């Protein structure tokens, strides 16, 4: 059994997508980040960076004590290695998959996240910041489009954790001021991932957990007002 500390963010969706694909037994432990639940002492023991998602695997491979992991990319890699699914088992294929996983973790996620912040949530519209992150998001969509333009169905050929990592960050493309029509290979890939049964289930789960996905001023203060004093 796996405990999944989760909220309905792109990084949270990655893990429910994987778990639903594999049919692993798991229990969701909601962490409402808009209410500050990510600062609870018990959660910080699992996720010292006070971010979701995080997991505790009560039956790690090889036995032994429960294993806790934070950071969505690390969780995807752990689960892929645990199940031997959704990551190639040969050296070249594995490293191809890992570099695209890290591309999402280091590029698409952070840049789209800053895009979301300055376009949707910043208290004032800052044209330079908006242009900077909208353009960089566009560039990253272009990188993905070029990768997918050789006829492959998924980022690494077969469906993998690279796709699960990237897809949730493409879902809010309109909020990122991106038009998928400009990126036809990404658009076709997006439809394929969206159509998978596990993807549908993961997003239905999200709707049942966060029934009112709004960010009010109090939530903004919690989400965007953190500094070193927050770490306790």
Write structural notes for this entry.
- This protein has 232 residues and is of the alpha+beta class.
- It contains 9 helices and 4 strands.
- The protein has helices at 10-22, 41-46, 72-83, 91-121, 127-148, 161-170, 184-195, 197-209, 217-224; strands at residues 2-6, 26-30, 54-57, 67-70.
- Strands 2-1-3-4 form a 4-stranded mixed beta sheet, with helices on one face.
- Strand 1 (2-6), helix 1 and strand 2 (26-30) form a beta-alpha-beta unit.
- The mean pLDDT is 96.
- Pfam families: GST_C (PF00043), GST_N (PF02798).
Task: Supply the key terms.
Glutaredoxin, 55% helix, alpha+beta, Glutathione S-transferase Yfyf (Class Pi), Chain A, domain 2, 232 residues
| Proportion of residues in extended strands | 5-15%
Give the proportion of residues in helices. Answer: 40-55%
Count of DSSP helices?
9
What is the general shape? globular
> How do the SSEs run, as a string of H and E?
EHEHEEHHHHHHH
The number of E-state strands comes to: 4
Report the CATH topology name of the largest domain: Glutathione S-transferase Yfyf (Class Pi), Chain A, domain 2
CATH class of the largest domain: Mainly Alpha
Strand arrangement within the widest β-sheet reads 2-1-3-4
How can the largest sheet be summarized? Answer: 4 strands, mixed
**Residue windows where pLDDT falls under 50 for at least 5 positions:** none
- What would you say the CATH architecture of the largest domain is? Up-down Bundle
How many whole angstroms does the radius of gyration measure?
A: 18 Å
Structural class: alpha+beta
Q: Kindly, what is the distance between the CA atoms of the first and last residues, rounded to a whole number of angstroms?
A: 29 Å
Query: What is the residue-averaged pLDDT?
Result: 96
């Amino acid at each position: 059994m796996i405990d999944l500390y989760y909220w309905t963010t792109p990084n949270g969706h990655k893990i429910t997508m994987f778990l639903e694909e594999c049919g692993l037994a798991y229990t969701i432990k909601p962490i409402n980040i808009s209410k500050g639940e990510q600062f609870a002492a018990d959660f910080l023991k699992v996720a010292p960076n006070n971010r979701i998602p995080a997991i505790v695997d009560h039956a790690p491979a090889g036995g032994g004590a429960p294993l806790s992991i934070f950071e969505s990319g690390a969780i995807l890699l752990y689960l892929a290695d645990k199940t031997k699914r959704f990551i190639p088992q040969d050296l070249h294929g594995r490293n191809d998959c890992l570099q695209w996983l890290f591309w999402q973790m280091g590029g698409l996620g952070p840049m789209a996240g800053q895009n979301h912040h300055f376009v949707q949530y910043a208290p004032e519209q800052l044209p330079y910041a908006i242009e900077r992150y909208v353009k960089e998001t566009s560039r990253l969509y272009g990188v993905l489009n070029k990768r997918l333009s050789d006829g492959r169905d998924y980022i690494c050929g077969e469906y993998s954790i690279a796709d699960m990592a990237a897809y949730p960050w493409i879902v809010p493309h309109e909020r990122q001021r991106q038009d998928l029509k400009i990126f036809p290979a990404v658009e076709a890939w997006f439809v394929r991932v969206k159509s998978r049964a596990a993807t549908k289930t993961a997003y239905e789960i999200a709707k049942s957990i966060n029934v009112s996905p709004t960010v009010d001023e109090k939530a903004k203060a919690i989400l965007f007002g953190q500094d070193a004093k927050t770490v306790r």
